[in-house]
Amino acid sequence: MSFAAGRTTRLKFGMSVMVLPGRNPVVLAKELATLDRLSNGRLSPAFGLGVADPHEQQAFGVARTERAAWFDESMAVLRVCAGSGKPVNHHGARYQYDDLRVLPTPRQEHLDVWLGGIAPFELRRVARLSDGWLPSFVTPDDAARGREVIEAGLAEHGRSIEPDHYGALIPYVGADDVVPEALLAGLAETAARPRRPVRARAPWVGCAPRAHRPVRRGRHLEIRGAPARRARDTRRVGCPPRGCAPPLLPRQT
């Protein structure tokens, strides 16, 4: 996310989705607030309980039956810490904080937090706590039904979610007629577009300056001299004989 923030200026970015139970909510709040400030308010985080994988649950140190309780309290701590920067007091069943202050504050006045999940209790949590919904591995029908449940819960709690804050990761479609014709046409056009041929690259290009020659240190070779990029780009050890054309080999990746 730091890389995405540094390489873009308008794109919103986030995770889909980060497992929250088992993470330190204070440290996470500071990380997210820093990312949001450095990106000028373009962070859009999303959290979930995690998949039903015993190895993942062992790694996070939270039993499956306790994930929901850990999630709710962690979310409360995260919200209040990644907020105004004022001292925080929290006394819950799992976290105890007195006069805790987390800086920097995020650029956004209110950090939009999305939640994942498709189970009924997860949908109710979205309606109660979230600013958006982002489930994974669902069908279009699942996404539509889940949105109906969330909207009913929002009405019950007197809350609302922006219309464009509903999303879903749908890895497949049910039939050909589900795919818009415009999308199929665009994919066909992209597939038919001619590609530039990949040029073979020589393992070396000419001879590097003497300062970049490899130096033997015991059993190891070190390339000494600056800039290192020159030595790396030539990708050679020693120089080819004068007048000998370098062999053409495919570039190693």
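Second entry:
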Amino acid sequence: MKVPIRARRLRVRAALIVVVTAAALFSTATAATADGNHGRDGHHDRGHETSAIVFNGEGNNLNAYTPTPPFRKQTVIHTRADDPRGLDINGQICFFPDGSRRFVAGEDTGQPNPPQGWGIFQLHGDRVGSLSATEVAKLTPTYQPSVDNAENYGCGFLSHGRVLTTDVGNQATGTGDGQLIVWFPPFRFGANHYCKVATDIATAGGIHVDGHDRVYVASARAPTAGIWRYTDLPTSDTAAGGCGAKDATGAPLATSVHRSLFITADPHAATPNAIVASGHGTFYVSSVFTGTIAEYDRRGTFLRTILAPPAGDMLGAKPYSTGTPLGIGVGPDGSIYYADIGIVISSGGIGPGNDTGTVRRIRFVHGVPQAPQTMDTALAFPDGIGILTPRAHQDND
């Protein structure tokens, strides 16, 4: 089995120091219920729009799925270990909002030489089975000195063509040194212009950007555990653009950072790993260790649990029966797609098992989340989700 450095030390192992806490907190979480549609009946029943395509990075491959049964699958980019022309793809997958069918994904082929980073790709084809992708640029920053191997994960977009990324930093112990970075066009292979917004995020994860350029970043462990909201990000890598400082590596750093805690880690999402907009003014947050997806309103207030393991279901030699969600995405019909990393408990500790990952879908009927449908099984370290939709749907809250 191919187990790259990145996969062996995957960020979802997150803070082992919070596992006991997460387990205790989970005892207060509830299973998905039909209570409180919060005035959203019908929002999730907009028909089956099969033109969407669901993407997942798994085993260093990039896979694509049709969004409805029978969930046809194509490997769009093969890992370098299987194909000498292949690339190693990881993390969140983000399509540019300009309709160009370009996307960003973690790309760490050959790490540490060259270092891991994020590839920008051009997608070709319009249906699963006929897709291909060409890498057109590579974003590679400096990383903070870390106990763990630096892990590329999150991505997102600001106005004026700016791209955002997060890298995880120390995953389980040690100082929080995950980074949030803004990149400035044009993008190329080689040197690119960027500015680091934060270098102190403890186990940094997924990114969401709303219609007002407010940036939401997940942090899975203390002291920054929760969802943080950043505003007024740099407009260039110069002092005039808000980037007049330097970090410990000598890279450009934002002069001042405007951030606030938007969602505090709670029993419903004890180890926040990713955040995505629902499409109707709320947010979904995944939590790997508790096996949950929770919904929050636009003020960051908990609304309900969308996914939780059934009563009595315990994490052990096998994952929760409903999985351990890391990456999440929302389709144009409101369905949630999630990458289940397949966390198990073994003699080696807590982490992804051998090919225990899955990709799953949660449908809604009259606003009520249904039991998850399994799209694919026996996967190695599926971690990120990306969805290509026929139209952008971004919350403008």
